[in-house]
Each structure stands twice: as structure tokens, then as C-alpha cells.
Amino acid sequence: MTKLTLTIVLVSLLVVVVTSLLANFFIENKFRSYIKNRLDNTALDIVGTISRQYDKASGSWDAAAVHAIGMSLLYEGFIIRVSDADGNVVWDAETCDMTLCTAVLDDISHRMTVKYPKNDSVITSKVFDAMNGGENIGTVNVKYLGPYFFNEGDFNFLDALNKILILTAFFTLFVSILAGFWIARRLSRPILITAETARKISEGDYEVRIKEETNTKELDQLIGAINQLGESLKNQEDLRKQLTADVAHELRTPITTAQTHLEAMIEGCWEPTKDRLQSCYDEMTRISRLVRDLENLAKVESGNSKLDRSMISLMELSNNVVLNFEAELKNKDLRTSVEGSDSMIFADKYRIEQVLMNLMSNAIKYTLEGGNINIRISESETSVIFEFEDNGIGIPEEELPLIFERFYRADKSRNRMTGGSGIGLAIVRSIVAAHGGTVEVKSRLNSGTCFTLTYPKTSI
Fold this sequence. Notes:
Layout: H1 2-51, E1 54-55, E2 60-61, H2 63-74, E3 79-84, E4 89-92, H3 93-96, H4 98-115, E5 122-132, E6 135-146, H5 152-202, H6 217-266, H7 274-302, E7 309-313, H8 314-324, H9 326-331, E8 335-340, E9 344-348, H10 349-366, E10 372-379, E11 383-390, H11 424-434, E12 438-444, E13 448-456
Parallel strand pairs: 8-10
Antiparallel strand pairs: 1-2, 3-4, 3-6, 5-6, 7-9, 10-11, 11-13, 12-13
Helix pairs in contact: 1-5, 5-6, 6-7, 7-11, 8-10, 10-11
């Protein structure tokens, strides 16, 4: 928070300083242009005022009035010399009081040099025609420190302007410090809370959540990501515990059964008949099948299993799978159909066949006698869509997000008459994902289930 506050303050200070310097620079430039125009206009006003001191009727100048005007202008920094039409000097400030003229110009020059050491001001002299009633009555020579100079009022104005800029800079800096502290606190507090929550999650507390909302999109996304991470880790931990319990459950029954039978035969309580030995063999087969399924799932999910891809026909593969289950379909009087386009995908034939076998096996188990199983194949612009639909017992809506988890079965009793180990759909999802596809499921209880597999169209 301190670093963020200092950063905001430094940036604000830099902006204020640069803005103040630029403002001072541009304002002074504009003010100098204004002073130059003002001096030019003043010179014209001086000529007009002097010209009015000529009496056209008598053809003479009012020397006293010209003297009064000239002395007044001298204190304002203007030295004038008035000549008549014949070139004769009517009045000259330098002749009248050369010492005062020099003192005035030196004073103005000194003040300009003090404020602007590098200024290039020099004595500027301009000659104007004096006109009265459209008649040229002489000339007026105006001298001043040019191209411009500042009088005392001008200097006071610039000093006041600089003070205002400095006060504004300090006020802005003060506001920036307060705003920086407030912004830094508002930003750092949820970040600190998020960091603390992430630390607790890393230590195994997957129940902790951030409830604070910041109204800042990026921070809310960060908080949402941390909360989602905690939820995902909690779900993974629950699945890990459930997996341990499920594996133990799946292995306990066949091992206990085989062990009990073998102990009875070893102790002489049972005769080692063929049926009893077959029962033990069946239990070992179940264990072997479970281990094999787990190995297949681990191999697919690890990504180490290399896919032996080739162009395969989903239509042909589906028909072959239906033939493989011909006996089971006949036993339950189930009707099947394979419809749609003969789409080709670039995939591992053995793995895709495993997907179809698992889906068909599930459909047969959970479809009542006399039911229907329909397979539809279609294409979009970029994908091949494979739909596997039955009108079986369906899956409860709340169970749908869980059916692809290992060992999950909607039948909580885990009756082996209604299902296997619960790994089949997990294998289906993993194989489809390994091919870059997706699998979705829609189901209604007592109405049926439809699995939709989408494979990308991939060239050889």
C-alpha cells in the first residue's frame, strides 16, 4: 500500500510540476505577445493624443500641453520627440530632461534584467506621422525599451500568477496524497485478503472463501478465480477421499468372498468343488477387470498414451459395436439403429471403439426390455457430432454433473446387477478429450439419456 501510495503521489507530483511549468511557459509567451501589442497600440494612442494638441486654425502647437503629456509618458517608459511639418522640434523629452530620461530607461532595463537575465531588449525608436483632419502636421518619435518591457503592474500580475500556480500545485499534491492513500488502500486491501486466502488454501483449508466485492472488474475476477480455485481443490480433495473409499469398497467384496471360500476349503469345511473354485476365480476376475480399467483410465488421463491415429468411419465402427452386442440386445429385445452421414474422423480406432463399447454397455444395462437405442452421426462446418440416445431409466438431474467421475454410479447400493465399477464414463470423457473433442449428456428420469460427442474435423 505504501509503495502504491508513493507511486501515485510521485506520478501526480510529476504531472503537477510539468503542467505548472508548461502553463507558466505558455502564459508568459502569451503575455509577452499581449505586451508587445499593447506597446504598439499605446504608441499609436500617444501619436493620436499629441496630434490633437495642434491648433489647425492658428497653425501652431500647444507646447505646454505637449510638455505635460511628454513628461507624463516619460514616467511610463516612453520618451517622445515632436516635430512640426517643417522638421522643427516642437518638444523633446531628452532635451527637456536628459538625466530623467536616462534614469527611467535604466530603471526599466534593470528590472527586466533582474527578472529575465537573458532578455534581448534594446532601445526601440519608432517614428509616426502626426495627422490632424487628414493633414500631415509633423512627426512623433516614440522611444521605449523594446521589443517589449514590463511595468510594475505587469510584474505584479506575473508574480500573482506564479503564486497561484504554486498554490495550485501544492493543493493538487495534497489532494493527490489523499487520493493515492485512498486508492492504494482500496486496491491493496482486497489483494491482501486474496493473498491470505490463497495462503490458507495452500495449507489445505479448502473451505475458506472471499466474500468481499470491490466493484473493480480486475480485482473481482482475481477474487472469483481464487474462490474457484478453492472450490476446485475442495472438490478434488472430496473426489480423492471418495476414490479411496470406492476403491476399497470395490476390492473388499471380491477379496472377502474369495478369502472366505479359500479359508473354508483349506480348513476342510468345504470340498474344493469346481463350482466353488469357479466362484473364487470369478472374484479374482472382477479384481483383475477393475485394475485393468484403472490402468486404462490412468494411461489416457496421463497423456503418456500415444494415440495411433488414422482415418476411421464412425458409421462402420458403430455398426461393428452393435454386432458385438448382438446377443445382449437380443436377450433384452432392444431395437437399435445407426443413422446419419458416413463421417470420417482422424482418431485412434481402438480408443474410439472403447468409447462406443462403454456407451453401448451402459445403454443396454439401463434400458428396459423392448426399448430403443439410437445412434446418429452428423457434421457441422468444423466438427463431427455423434449422438448416442436411449429411452432407458434416465439419470436424475442433480446427478448429471457427477456421472463422469471415477466410481460414480447413480445406483447408491452399487449393485453389480445394474452396473460395473463406475469407471466407464470417466474413460469415455478422457478419451474424447484426448482427441480434442467434448462430451455432453442430457437426461430425464424415466425418459432416457442422450450422450453427444463432438470431434473436430482434423486433416491427416
